[in-house]
Amino acid sequence: MITLAVNGQTLSTELPPETPLLWVLRDGLGLTGTKYGCGVAACGACTVLVEGEAVRSCQLPVGEVNGAVTTIEGLAGAEGLHPLQKAWVAEQVAQCGYCQSGQIMQAAGLLMANPQPSDAEILEAMDGNLCRCGAYPRILAAIKAASAAMAG
Amino acid sequence: MGRAGKIARRSFLIGSAALVGGVAFGWYQYRKELPNPLQGQGLGALTPYVLIDASGVTVIAPRAEMGQGTHTTLAALVAEELDLDWSAVRVLHGPPAQAYYNGSLLREGVPFAPLDQGWLAETARDAMDVPARFLGLQVTGGSTSIPDGFEKMRLAGAVARLALIRAAARRSGLVEADLRTEGGRVLLPDGASLSYAELAVEAAAVELPDPPELRPSNAWKLLGKSLPRTDMAAKSDGSARYACDVRLPGMVFATVRRNPAPGAALLRFDAKEALAFPGGRDVLPLENGFAAVAESSWAAMQALDLVQVEWAAPDVAVDEALIAADLRAALDGAPEATAREQGEISAPEFEAEYSVPHQAHATMEPMGAAAWLQDGRLQLWAGTQFPTMALAEAAKAAGVAPDAVEFHTEFMGGGFGRRAEMDFIRQAASLAKALSPVPVLLSWSREEDMAQDMYRPAAMARVRASVADGAVSQFHLATAAGSIIESLAGRFGFPALGPDSSILQGAGEQPYDFPNYLVTGHRAETRVPLGFWRSVGNSQNAFFHDCALDELAHLAGVDPLLFRMRQMTHLPSIQVLEAAAEISNWGATAPGRAKGVGFCYSFGVPVAEVVEVEDTPQGIRLTGAWIAADPGIALDPSIIEAQLSGGMVFGLSAAMQGAITFAQGRVEQSNFWDYEPMRMRQCPPITVKILQSGGEIRGIGEPGTPPAAPALANAIFALTGKRIRHLPLNREVRFA
After folding, report:
1. Least CB-CB distance to B650: which of A19, A134, A139?
2. What is the nearest CA distance from A99 to chain B, expressed in angstroms?
């Protein structure tokens, strides 16, 4: 049995340690906000934070997770939605919405490391996250809005 | 108002028993009332769109949400007439029901150009309502949800409102004329008010009034404005549920593999190693393949790879050479249909051949569904564009009667036409049968999704044309593709009669009036599974038709945008080109950059797109994009902007770098590394201008896609002098 810190809770799974974190979250723990898109780290739909860093959970065996995991379900804090989530709603970013958990978590990792990114830094950080609906312009706008809001 | 009026009379449902016993009454009521189109007048059945219970008002959206925002706008149509508080509106996808047939879908299937609004064309279109109803075509596609719902949904709201007023009048003893409605309540003259929920039981009992006049657009409070989408919060906090997110007690997880040569059989397999994989549970045969079932989706995918398998060879080892030869043979042969014929074509000075490859849908959510067969009843959860058919197919595959199926239409992680198909529905139902009473979640791998698509056909065209006095003097477009309808008919068991109009879609109905103008469609051999891909035939024919015009403009020595405008006969089309020129600052481009324009009239919507490109040391970079479009009436500008720009990105992705290729009967691409949609750094800023000529209202999910490829190819010509007539463009140029 493997024990994990996920969204501030201690959870455990019977799934084998080589199972990627993505599938432990989705199939073992019922945290289905994190999505499967490609299984080869080419689309970013499975992005979560481990110790504040954005990682592709489809590539990370659960047995090798060292640190606290944050998924889209745990991004909101005691004071409500994360500024990125608020910006996502304000900018009306999502279309089909399937990639958006990964987009938001990737952006959350970016803003933790770099609270005031330039456009070029945002594009670079987000380039691994595919959106088939083509919501990119609004994703960019929302990240900039969230960054500005967090700077207060 | 005739036909739609009859619909509305029956379209008001109040779940009165819901107040005491949940929503069961409402659901039971419309199950019971499935219409028999042979009986009664009009629809002869209740078609409910409004459900009121103790917790408030729920709008039943008869179309599926795949990202296009249709739930929001369909709900706004009801809310506008029913005076609902937008923040309190809830939306549910209705159950599969014939009552939710899509009358607009077949309207465009009649053999008249969309521009033809003459008596005969309109009569023929109206007549298509009948087969749509008979077939129970509850379909989301063809950019039809809003045209189909524009009147129906408003009438449903208006009739519901009158019934609530009538109930309030009875309760209060006041006359109806003294009562008003606002924010989900009936307001009495003394300042008191009654909520719709508390009036619901009485309203359900009143005789439904005749459909009222609908409110004029200048009185709209919700329509015409950008509303917060009803699905946005759930899609920003991870709680939006897609089929792959359904979890049930004791659920097992499955994944499938079919013969990578589409349509070829499975000969034999050995599951010994797969079953020994930790967490592996079953390996089950399916049509042309097998499924692995395990304790997690990942274990199922691992186990699947351990199955020793022998596949049958395909009857024909399709490859790119054969596909090209088929298309050339079709163009050399007689046309299947002629979309346009005036004057004659002789001794053209310009001749060119164009081609496009197959395309995959590659929705972000791979195909999948959840299914549970228990005590002879099947429950199925899927994102589908075609719920009535999905229910029937699921019943067949599970071996139960259709009325033993409860079907749940979930959010779709992208559709683009792929989720109108039935393969994954049948697989999930078959698995539920084999595993009953254990519930199962079927999730395809990305690789399976790429290899087992129903692809946008490869297509090829020849253009023969001349210019004189700065204008086109003759223009012959011959366009060839395999037949989507033939492919689909084979899969669905429908007869495929007559020519396939999708081959000519977008080729014959462009709003030009060249003196000599011939457009012919040629059906090529259909050897691989073909399907509807966002904008369908328009996606290739806009590239052929519009790129050829761009070349002719160059030949004539006329600005390409003016060249198109001057020869157009349709004012809204001229106006979108003017608007695109204005917002893109067409005449003024920075040094080192160049602009190209693309135009297509599709689904009744004229769309002009401009792309600006720059040559950089890393390759060609897209520095700007502009879209002008006219859907007749714009109900939600924010959603329209998102659909147009998203549609353009979809078209640009395919034009730049999208190609599905075949070798030895198999698709060569397997994942996003070799079929790579546009990424964020490649995406230019996109500016959208929405025009409203006030004509018939049109859907906007697809028209943004077709002009993208010609706009980019024409921009690359303007920048480099290189005419690229064969997609994808990255075979000829490098993109940054």
Report:
1. A134
2. 7
* Amino acid B19: pLDDT: 31
8 A C-beta contact, residue B446 and residue A22: no
Cβ of B241 within 8 Å of Cβ of A100? The answer is no
- Pick A95's closest partner by Cβ from B245, B642, B677: B642
Query: What was the pLDDT predicted at B28?
Result: 27
Q: What is the mean pLDDT of chain B?
A: 88
Residue B573 has pLDDT above 80, yes or no: yes
For residues B724-736, average pLDDT: 97
Nearest to B411 among A39, A72, A97 (CB): A97
H/E run at residue B169? helix B145-172
- Residues of chain B positioned with their CB less than 8 A from the CB of A89: 228, 232-233, 236
pLDDT in tens, B124-142: 555 555 445 445 566 777 7
Count other Cβ atoms within 10 Å, centred on residue A111. 20
Average pLDDT over residues B678-693: 97
Chain B contact set for A37 (CB, 8 A): 364-366, 446, 672
Task: Look at residue A137 and tell me whether its pLDDT is greater than 90.
Answer: yes
Number of Cβ atoms within 10 Å of the Cβ of B17: 17
> Smallest CA–CA separation between B363 and chain A, in Å?
7
Average pLDDT, chain A: 97
- DSSP secondary structure string for all residues of B318-384: --HHHHHHHHHHHHHS--SEEEEEES---S-SEEEEEEE-BB----SS-SEEEEEEETTEEEEEE--
What whole-number percentage of chain B has pLDDT above 90?
74
In Å, how far is A107's CA from the nearest CA of chain B?
13
Asked if B649 lies within 8 A of A136 by C-beta distance, the reply is yes
Residue positions counted in chain A:
152
Domains present along chain B, CATH in parentheses: 2-102+138-219 (3.30.365.10), 243-314+367-443 (3.30.365.10), 320-359+454-731 (3.30.365.10)
What are A41-93's pLDDT values in tens digits? 999 999 999 999 999 999 999 999 999 999 999 999 888 999 999 999 999 99
Cα distance between residue B544 and residue B548, in whole Å: 6
Nearest residue on chain A to B247, alpha-carbon basis: A30
Judged by CB atoms closer than 8 Å, whether chains meet at B672 and A134 is answered as no
Token representation of residue B78: 């009801």
Domains, chain A, in order of start with CATH, read 2-74 (3.10.20.30), 83-151 (1.10.150.120)
